[in-house]
UniProtKB/TrEMBL annotation:
Gene3D superfamilies: 1.20.1530.20. It is found in: Membrane. It comes from the Bacteria. GO terms for cellular component: membrane. Pfam families: SBF. This is Sodium-dependent transporter. The keyword Protein biosynthesis does not apply. Its main location: membrane. The chain crosses the membrane at residues 21-39, 59-81, 93-119, 125-147, 159-183, 195-216, 236-259, 265-288. It comes from Streptomyces inhibens.
Length: 378
């Protein structure tokens, strides 16, 4: 074994070790946010730079946005563009899945709005609806590649749907935010409408699409051997960045909950997030069955419909609604619940799962047991 391969092996061993303990590390990040929020609150208030956006908007680059950009960059770095050209021969499923990722969460949001507006809350439930809208607006989470692979799904289709929804997010995010503005009220409606009309697409392009395109470009420009050797270490750093992002995002909401306990509001946020996530999984599966998709394609559509990038929505919630920490509650609940529901969907679809070693995944996404840690945090 060469020195380079030994170096890569150490990184891969550390990566596997981190994956094994990830289930326990996540609660530690939430516990730290509840018990030691001071460092997180200081970091959240520290601006790094500012970007002027088309339409007169301004995006402040914070520690959170930079951490998210790195996580998305590393996620895209694992994708080989040439593997996605296979989808050009079967564009129907790709277009249907991309449309479902935009339409299904928005439909569920509109259905929930009628119930939320009947709440006795001072804002009529608009705060929680805003959090759900930020979830619905986000592209497919990179974690869908992990769960889709575990369940024996068409990994090429999963990766294609992740990338297509991400690249279209400058168009789909303003559309979803405009729909949410119509069913919310007060300052929430005004803020969502402003984000949709002035800066929604530009924010998506700068904060979501740009890091992904940079990752794809770097993957295509550098030698494959160099990328393969560096990926384990880059993934470890992305895992640390994602955990730091989880801590920072949770600090504001948990501090407010401890200072002003509102168990009914927390329960409602959890139920609403569970309803949106579960309905998205079910409707994705129903869409695949209606299209007569093969089993592997059904798995791909199910997971990509049910998993949205909660890390990106949490960053938007904390940066665009800093004075309304309860907007973050359904996002934090969704982040945890989508992994639990993905596990249930994995078990439900496991009847025809390919045996280990069969149906090799596309490109850098390996089979069952090799899980990119950063994706599991989205």
């Amino acid at each position: 074994m060469t020195t380079a391969s030994c170096h890569q092996g150490r990184g891969q061993c550390l990566l596997v070790l981190a994956q094994r303990h990830l289930t326990w590390v996540m609660p530690v990040a939430y516990g730290a946010a509840a018990l030691l929020p001071q460092a997180g609150q200081w970091a959240r208030r520290m601006p790094c730079a500012a970007l002027w956006l088309p339409g007169g908007g301004q995006a402040v680059l914070t520690v959170q946005t930079l951490l998210l950009a790195y996580v998305l960059f590393v996620a895209a770095l694992q994708v080989r563009v040439r593997d996605l050209t296979v989808l050009l021969r079967r564009p129907a499923l790709l277009m249907a899945g991309t449309a479902a990722n935009t339409a299904v969460p928005l439909l569920i949001l509109l259905l929930l709005a009628g119930t939320f507006l009947l709440l006795p809350d001072a804002d009529g439930g608009s705060g929680l609806l805003t959090g759900l809208a930020l979830i619905a607006a986000m592209p497919v989470a990179g974690g869908a590649t992990v769960w889709g692979s575990r369940a024996g799904g068409n990994q090429t289709l999963v990766v294609g749907l992740v990338m297509s929804s991400t690249l279209l997010s400058p168009l789909t995010i303003p559309l979803t935010l405009a729909g949410a503005a119509a069913v919310t009220s007060g300052t929430y409606s005004l803020a969502l409408a402003r984000m949709a009309h002035l800066a929604g697409g530009a924010l998506a392009a700068a904060g979501v699409v740009a890091p992904c395109l940079m990752g794809l470009a770097v993957r295509g420009a550098l030698p494959e051997g160099l990328i393969v050797r560096a990926l384990p270490w880059l993934k470890l750093l992305a895992l640390a960045a994602a955990l730091a992002l989880t801590y920072l995002n949770a600090c504001g909401a948990f501090t407010d909950l401890i200072a002003r306990p509102r168990p009914a509001l927390l329960a409602l946020a959890t139920v609403a997030a569970a309803a949106m996530c579960a309905a998205s999984f079910v409707l994705g599966w129903c869409l695949a069955r209606m299209l007569g998709a093969a089993h592997a394609d059904t798995i791909a559509l199910t997971f990509t419909s049910g998993m949205n990038n909660s890390s990106a929505s949490a960053v938007l919630a904390t940066t665009r609604f800093p004075g309304h920490p309860h907007v973050l509650l359904p996002i934090l609940a969704y982040s945890v619940l989508q992994k639990l529901l993905a596990g249930l969907a994995d078990n439900a679809l496991a009847g025809r799962r390919p045996a280990d070693g069969e149906g090799a995944a596309v490109g850098p996404y390996l089979g069952r047991g090799t899980v990119p840690p950063l994706d599991r945090l989205q």
